Records
---
Amino acid sequence: MAASATDRNGDGRPFPPGEYPLVVVGSGPGGLQLSYSLRRLGVDHAVISADPAPGGMFRRFPFFQRLLSWTKPYAPVERGSRAYERYDWNSLLAEEPENRAVMTGLMDGTSYFPSRAEMELNLATFAERAGIGVRYDCRWEATRREATADGERFVLETSDGEYRCRVAVFAVGVAEPYTPPTPGLDRVPHYADTRPAETYAGKRIFIVGKQNSGFELASGLLPWARAIVLASPSPAKLSVVTRSLVGIRARYLQPYEDHVLAGGVAVLEASIEGIEPTGDGGTLKVTVRPSAGGDAVALEVDEAIAATGFVAPLRDLPALGVATFGNSRLPAQTPFWESATVPGIYFAGTISQGAAGLKKHGLPSNSGAVHGARYNARLLAGHVAEKHFDVPRARRELAPTEVLPFLLDEICRAPELWHQRAYLARIVSLDPDRGIADEGFLPLAHFVDSGGPDSLAATIEADADGAVYPVVYVRRAGRIEERALPGHPLHDFGTDEHRRALAALLNEVGISAAEESSPRPGR
Amino acid sequence: MTQLLELADELGSLALFADLSHPQLESVAHAFEEAWFAKDERILREGLTGTGFYVILDGEVAVRAQGRDTAVLGRGAFFGEVSVLLGEAPSADVVALRTMRCLHMAGPALHEFLLAHPAVMYRMLLEQTRRLRTTTRARG
């Protein structure tokens, strides 16, 4: 534990205002994972949070108290192993066995999906066991830059005083409710202000928005509402169709089935032109215009809820020069999650989805969810440590005969590759001066665009038809070549066919692999 | 930052979407995702598969082949459709000449989108025809 994490002013809280090499803002999964990973690398830093306890958004949401992301207690691999992370979307990453797979040990066995309370406890338990110091109840309020004799500092003004740092990382979630400027919508409660389900008993409910939050509410209100209408201008996307986290998740599809089976839920493709009181018993008139054309339609409902999403609460960072984009006002980022416009400001947690990566075949990263963002945070810690604090990247020399079994094992088992497909890659450098080496993981976008020594980058990808297959990017003399390996119906990439294909590729780059003697990757 | 209603208004000012009604523009705004690229960042990469379709909202890009810029595209222009429609990797890089804000649609979604919006497909065909004419004249 860094000295600065100790109580300096006697109120029992660590990290009093002052100067730190790095400040992390936020105590959700992103902030906790980053702090843990920075500490492993010996990077002194402070963590501050406006909340009174760890957990971030999971201290409040999902509204209906059950997560979208699963943790599989009985998996094909040993619980707590690195390979197990592929089946456990909710635990944070740790080196110590007792701090791994924390989520699994806290679930009560009634669901594949942890409850919100279990997830909150998972994060609090990790923070406590791993000894993550956080100054809670310390609200970041404003930001400025300050020139000093030894370079520029960021100054974070907080409810407790000012923090100065060379590097600031914001892990503040995408948690600020957003309501579009549709006439009358400002008087409609947002998802975040939804009341207890029983208070909607017997009512006709209009939900603005057809993303997961809208369908979550519709699912939870099915046993209470008399009628439910969900509306937004474009068709509902379903995750089982997009084959990604984009779209309504299977857990929330029941209202959609009610709709297609004419069971009392209506899912409309229409723009909402206005919501106004009818003046008759508190009911509302909602005017919608079908996207396909035709006249506007007026609906009378008892309640409306704006499930219109959240934006990143970046406060004054845009005024400082941080460019943002898109509906969630995400900060534009480099592949290493640094602001594309204000160097020295980084982002962790779900905001890291602003570094979109290659989105090959339309497949987005999973950076918006814990099981993607946790790997981003670990890589970010290594990147910041190397770039700003002269901590060298770990690399491990490989004998030529080790490369084939090593890469084969990674494409079979590496959770980083399975959770962040076409986004993170395992790198093997082939530098003739330094020898062959495992260089760990890099964002794939950085690898293909940055140049550097001859190297291989192994990743997992998926195409538009849903086929999942390994890909090796070969960098030779600065040129990148994409080489897809075969897929497999059961996603088993350790077959003889894969071994032969990878051996042939390695042979092309001058690595003569003794593939016949290398063992098959563990299952 | 752009929210969807504002984005729909912005789309209406681009030639590609000029024939659409406002409800249709809102639907289109939902169908695309906004993306942002830094100066010198590559958006399409020569030889790499799985690309998408892009419409420029702000900024400029260069089409770069063998280190030579063969075209510069600005606000309202689109790119990426050739690779997506032919199912081939791009034969050139597309690089942001300055910060660039654009709309992105994943390649696999473009086919269905065009069939659902024939007016957009017609505008795209017009632009492709102009590009073909320009290329033909340059060679002729």
Note: Chain B has a mean pLDDT of 92.
---
Amino acid sequence: MREAVLRLSGVTFSYDRHPVLEGIDLEVAAGEFLGLIGPNGSGKSTLVQLSLGRLSPDAGSVYLFGEPVEKFRKWHRIGYVSQKSNSFNLGFPATVYEVVASGLTGKLGLFRRIGKKERALIRDTLERLGLSDIAGANIGRLSGGQQQRTFIARALVSRPELLILDEPTVGVDAESVNQFYRLLDRLHREEDLTILLITHDIDEITAAVDRIALLNRRIRFCGTPQEFAARRGEVLWVEDGRDVSHASRVPGEEIRV
Amino acid sequence: MSLTVPGKGAVRQSANGMWEMILNYDFMRRAVLAGLIVGLISPLVGIFLVVRRLSLIADALAHVTLSGVAAGLLLQKHVPLFQQVSPLHVGMVFSIGGAMFVEQLRRLYRTYQELAIPVVLSGGIGLGVVLISAADGFNVDVAGYLFGSILAVGEDELWWMIAAAGLVLAVIYLFYKELFALSFDEESAVISGIPHRWINLLFSFAVALVIAASIRVVGILLVSALMTLPVASALQISGSFRRTILYSLLFSESAVLCGLAAAYYLDWSSGGTIVLVSVLILVSILAAKRIRRLLILKSRQSDV
């Protein structure tokens, strides 16, 4: 087994005594593509915030690249695409190039400016994501799919080893969603990028991911897509006795564990 | 009741014209220089406020500065030690304090970030009014601080403004990429390891400096105009951040120069005229865009 890029062990977290996560043990190995699914309010986003050190667990620990998250400082090793990226200020006067370049800010550090090497990195990232032709376009004028690729490019430009995506397909049309998963699949295969994807789209991700983890306060299932498919009825069997394994893809409604 | 607005009547029109006045009189030269300095630093700071949807913060801090100026005048009157201290500098200290308070409020009310503005604005005005009434009248014309008095800018003041502008330019130049990243997407910027607290604090400091420097030129009531109007105009015609900065600088410097010239020839208040020219630029751009759209529409129709 390769080194664990992200490891949560025995993580428990509650908001105002309301338990959100209980005894979470989860590992993302180097080079792995892990899909984390779960209904609304299952603690997915909280888990991301804990993984990024934005929240501290009540119990248990989080490790990034083998280091406790409290001490971790090499944030440029992680690319992050937030849920909010889809609802940014549409009137912001920035081009695709400027947005992607801003992804290098943390890695460069204070007082260092974008030089020749960085410009080559930006051009290369734009090329890889098929954004070269619209590099000079205003970000607000792009389609949802193009905006999303711009945000991925911003996260990837610093050449991170781990890419964390928090529900990146919310509010994006179906065609773009499919393209988006093909893109993630390609990045994962060709560039050996470790990916943690938090999503609602169970069916779309099974083809691309190595493992699926189902979260609802606890990790209810963790295994390969094949195992998930085989045990799907059982896994999605509800605790309160309702089977919703065949439920629709309405965000947040598809699974109740 | 008649309110004397500084600037009006301060300069008699002469047949020599404005340029000769500038060549011959120090106070005119200082006025133009002060105007150009403020025209340079206001939109540079303003653009980050506008894109972060915090344009009104400048207004709030300007009112806090007013209370600081009042405190400075009061101290001047009663404490001998403060007789050498310009009330504007006390105002600036208040403004920095206000900026730090705004940051604190923004963190406490993450989902209601704009709430910081009325809190600080009304607090500033409240304190200012109380201090002014406590002083029982000042020798200095408070109206000069409210509406600006660019022709009264002294030698010392000009040097101080140049120093303040230097600091503001340094902050924007050195932390441009951090400020851009934080303005575009604060969450991702913070996660990427940018020292956001420091940068935000430094930026608040720059805003306070710009306000203190602008008060002489346009006055407390109009300080935010030079920070936001040129940016609002630039946003209409630019798709990139760098261009937006460039255009807003162009618009604000033209507004300063045209405003000063118009104020001189028409004998109007200079601060007010500069702001009116800024509004005129914005309205002209909006109108031009509309006319262009109509023309395009018309040519399409005639093609059919």
Note: The longest strand of chain A covers residues 4-15.
---
Amino acid sequence: MSYTPVAPIVTARLGYDDSYTLERAVATGAYTGLRHALTQTPEAVQDNVKLAVLQGRGGAGFPAGNKWGLLPAGKFPRWLVVNGDESEPGTYKDRILMERDPHQVVEGALICAYAIRASQAFIYVRGEMALAQERMAQAVNDAYANGYAGKSILGSEWSMDVTLTWGAGAYIVGDETGLLESLSGRRGMPLPKPPYFPAAIGLYGDPTIVNNVETVSNLPWIVLNGGEAYSALGVEKSHGTRMFAVSGHVKRPGVFEVELGKLSFRDLFYDERLCGGIRDDRRLKAFIPGGGSAPWFYEEHLDLPLDPSVIGPAGSMLGSGAIVVMDETTDMVRAAWRLVRFFANESCGKCTPCREGCAWMQNIYERIMAGHGRVEDLALLEDVGSNISPGVYPGAGAHPGDPAIPFPPKQTTICVLGPSAVAPVTSSLRRFRDEYLAYIDGTKAPTIGTGSR
Amino acid sequence: MSRLSPERVALAQEIMGRFPVPRSALVPLVHLAQEQDGYVAEDAMEHIAELIGCTPAEVYGTATFYEMFKFHPCGKYVVSICTNIACLLLGADELLEHAERSLGVRAGATTEDGTITLEDVECIAACTLAPCIQVNYRYFANQTPESFDALMADVRGGKLDAEVPPHGLLARVRPHIDPAKWAGTGTAPPPTAERFPGPALTESDRADIQGAKTQGAGTQGAKTQGASRRRR
């Protein structure tokens, strides 16, 4: 495979320094998509998005058009919530979109609200993103002042209120039911689903659509250029372009918008126009293909295409488009511990297997890294993991060539946070068992509890 | 320390007015309280409970779920060092250790002069700028121990005051909507066909859209042209 750049869709405006201002946005075509949408019926807009096969960009990848179709007919009020509570380790595409092109987010939210006949749209921005909140607030204020939002949008008879709100630091609020709880003024703890999905019973018990910031940012382009043009991009089962945030041990980390399925991880990491290779030309040891929740990939997966339909059977996911690259110098036990510690910190505490399991896994890790580990601890880690996610956890094999167990995992918890904490444990244990054993038998010096961290 | 000031009560009413259900404003209102005192005071939580019509325990119970809310006075500047995976790979642990030594406090504590609260935080969504830190939720990228010390000197010297507001004030731009433009769609009766009329624009609007579409919206030029026609 080789990389051929395509015209960007959601990042088209980012080249301008003042891309976040109303003047620049309007001069480069912002709100044209909304204008066009308003000449059609909401159903026509929805059909267009179904044709585009726009898969949700938040992580689960459920097609947006189909999600909208789950709304019970004739039931009002119904709400649109745009999820900008991006907190997955490694991910920051939504922050870029909200900071640099907030009008595109507002326009996308309005198009979505029109298509689903929403009663009101809410945009929820993560608490820690102060600049994104400022830019979004300015964009919403400007949109109201210039007739793009509020009463009689663009002189039509259609009115829609857009309410900006923000969180206060909780990873789990990125889950759609957790987000709706937070938006209702409660602790952001996820709710069981099924039986009821937010499309049927969501915010205030009414039908609700929750879409990611990047998902709605695609809508203006789709409305203007047609669903077929969008689905023509990408490959058979994965359409359009996607933003990938590559971080860690690469020479040029950054966010890249690329066509889905048309390039491989190797292209992404080594192409001079993209990441430009591994830092100091070292060897790749492992990489996380889809944010902290995803099982890890190794060198033999470099040639897989960036296509969710291929990544799933290979044992992982593209998730939120966050790719973390680890070179040969990385301490895999420490890397896994850090992710486990993250999930233990962020567990909302609702489901016992996750609340207790993540914390115990963290404790076991700290014991091993402090030099007090036992060989049985490795089996214990797997056992705790299988209480959160029963059965063999998905992922690539212990050795190159071993069969992969397809993603997604089973779970004993309401949301996927618990199983996510198992991903780094099994990924590192299967492949780098000797690194754990080195801590345990004392050939590697303890790295915590020694006065340093 | 105190209940919300009259100006903040007015702001709180404005925020609540943008939701169909007042309780939805709980998190933004607690932010207002934190903005006033630098932390979330008990009296302020009681006041918020009165405003949104729930019990103080519900406000406290909800607010404590969120990590950004502090329930004890903290420094004027909260310095958050990310130690999650991407920053860890590029030396965040060493940076945190240095920060603890140079500030003389452990993560979670406030310096003796009450200026700086040091925090060890999870991913703050700036992974390509690793190791990255935030000062009152403003980003400072690619930190080294040396640049960290220089930054702290600037913070203490007040050199960043234009860029970084005191702890508690998140966004300096507030959503503010002219009541005349607020449509009230969230509390309006169920929408009917009349509220979603479909074609509702003038012929010239449609010509513009057609123009933008057929000329290929992918090109900047076509978009600019269409937009300038409309603006005249």
Note: The radius of gyration of chain B is 24 Å.
---
Amino acid sequence: MISVEEYKRQAKMCMRCTFCKFIDLNWVTSLRFSRQCPIDTRYAFNLYSPHGLLHSALEELDGKLEFTPRLMDALYKCTLCGACDARCKRNLDIEVLQVIEKLRARCVEQGKGPMPEHKVIANNIRKTRNEYGEPHANRQNWLTTSIKPAPKADMVYFVGCNAAYRQPKLAQATAKILGRTGTKFILLDDEWCDGNLVTATGQVELARELAEHNVKEIQKSGAKTVITSSAECYKSLKVDYPKLLGKSTEDMPYTALHITEYLDQLMKDGKLEFKKGVSMKVTYHDPCNLGRLSEPWQEWEPNYVRVIPVGKVWRRGDRGIYDPPRNILKSISGIELVEMERNRSNAWCAGSCGGTAEAFPDFALWTAGERLEEALATGAEAIVTCSPEAKEILSRAAKEKKADMAVYDITEIILKAI
Amino acid sequence: MSLPKEAYKALQSIVGPEWVSDDPAIVEADHVAGGAHGETDIKRPACSIHPQTAEEVQEIIRVCNRYMLPFSATTTNPPPGMERENVVFIDLKRMRKLEIDEENLYAIVEPGVSFAALQGELFKRSLVTFVPMCGGNVSVLANSLNVGEGAISYRYGDRGYRRVLGAEWVTAEGEMLRLGSRAAANDYFWGEGPGPDLRGLMASANLESPTTRGICTKLGIRVFPFVSERLEPTGDAPVTTLQLPSNRFKYYNFVFPTKEAAINAIYEVGKCEIGLFVMTVPPWFFAMARARGSAEVLTGAAGFWDYWDNHEAPLIRENPNQTSCRALLYGIGSDKRLAYEEKVLMDICKEFGATFARASRRTTDETHFMSADAIVSNLAGGRFTSVILFESLDHAYKCADIVNTNTKKHVPPVLDDYGTTNWFLPFEMCHICKLECLRFASVEDAGELALLMDDCHKDFVDVGAYPVRPAAERYGPKWENYPEKTRKFKKLLDPNNLAPPIS
């Protein structure tokens, strides 16, 4: 987490140019889908915008603004999708997201945040090691008799709370895919919640505790690679854990892989071919946590020469996991992949990130509805994603809008084809 | 700050309680919209309100007049008139309707429509507009009434307000004025229309602040025919581009041995009526583009300073008068036309001793159509000022020298730019030239930038320069005492003195 000095410096850099509110301008093709910040698009007040939050951060730091209910409303409705961060770094290179994250952490430090729903989840995690308060002993109940993790392997499958407790079919699909590609994997003896939500909501101490535990478990397992099919867990393992532990991604004792990265590599190595066709016109939704938020973390001690930072590795959102899921979909015969107007680092958030879905379900559903409308505009019959949370909320949006649009996690499609 | 309860209730009844707020966090964030933190003397507004229709805007202004509340309106730019207490901040970004008349070549925009959105919609119809250099994210309506120029103004016309057609304008008393052909029917195709042409009263950025004397809620603007081929967006930020069809467009970068040769060559390009634009390119832009647009960026300062200190600066010291230019040739109608333009450009470059240079590694030359790189030349963490003038091309060079001289006196520079951060963009086939002099400082030295501006204006008055938003007290006496005249208009249109500018 950035120092207070750096936090102030970054927030002060903002000149309210508003580039943060739009997708990369070269990619704008319509009025309808030109904007990128969900809170700005829905609420319009400047407080509900990246630059509004940056300014509030400075005012709060200077003691001129308190964490009022309205400020907290804006702060926690922000989905932390990182679109603003990627756009700002098109031109100005401000660490917008880090400032908003720090503002949330300050809100928690002062006893004001997070939102009540987030506190319930944190308590669930403290007691049962999962977000839902389900018995910890049931974490591996998703396993079926046909799925047999290896006793020992170089790869550990990190399941995540959602797939373990809410969408076991996704965990089963992942395990079956690994099995069918001949990949040996183990499960952690004691997997805890990855902590994506508690990290995002500014509950840094708990987040660090979870990171320390899971990293220790991974080390104990002897595995060098951690694979997951959850975009949220992927970001935790690859970005948040090193960040919370004061390290860089490359210094972690494991390599985090999303299942699409792994399968894409198998395809490139000629070790995987999809033999069954799936006849479907689909569009792909880039989950924020797998796309622009998933770039490796690199620790950096602030060092400036004539206002330009030295030795800093920028995370601009362009090095996220964008191609592997697309390569996989394109390689399955019968699948026609059509892109939404806002794709890759320009993708509109589905609304499930940052704790928004838990505290503000109506707004999160509106955000998902916007994404669904965009998917419908492509003429696709299904929307495919790589996040159990995104799948959940997009499915709800489709149901609410009575839209003729199926929603799949990519593992479900792969399982049909493999 | 105290807004009468009755006034607040009246505002709520117009837009609904969701779209008006006097919460400190809301008004705090609004009052700095479009500006930098803590650098200007502005006050929190009494409330923020978001109308969605012109009728709602009218109602809001009437409430302001009833309770004598000053108001200020904006979408993306700094709201003017925020020095006053109790301002009702009217944010127009929910007004986002857009219509395009393809046959008659005009678009009707509400304040919340951005240039990028309009351009995206126009491209689908083989039409184009010129997007201002400050960025495609800004409001079409507001910018067209303000400075409103873009790179391709070279071919399609000068300042934005010259393409303004019919308009809906809510005066500072809440009366709806319909200008141009809009006065006769629900039609925006014609700007002049019956009766006196009042557009200049809205479009007076050259004189005072934008959004003067009321609020424009709908505007017709001219658009122009364009190629039918798709301009393909490619790449991920920060390196994205719009790929232009190669049979119809071609970029050339070239370097002239002297400033004089560059001026004369640019004049010649205009005389021959070739190109979609031609402009000078400050070496600073090259350096920033290289630092941001390649792997060098990963090394942060090292990439930039290495390039600037070891490559660009020695070249400038060696040849201080050398001038880099860029032109985009355009095969209007056919690829034969492109071939013709190339031949003409080659002849001109030969005559004036130009050498051709490779394009920047950042593949964003094409962003002139969206101005996606608008502020890439700024330094994150620094501040900049932009001295903008509209001049004849040869006179613009004299004005640039004034800025260079004053820069040495005032600004502790982030880097010694050797006077190379001046940017010349000819419009209307070189009839007029925009000169933009960007100057950079650290946040701590930002105050020096204001002093620099002040000194430049002192000298500009003497040489008869035409800056954007000149200081009224300096230029008034030389310019027919225009502040006095505008005050008369102000009294007529805003008797309660509620709209900016404040008189």
Note: The domain at 1-113 of chain A is CATH 1.10.1060.10 (Fumarate Reductase Iron-sulfur Protein; Chain B, domain 2).
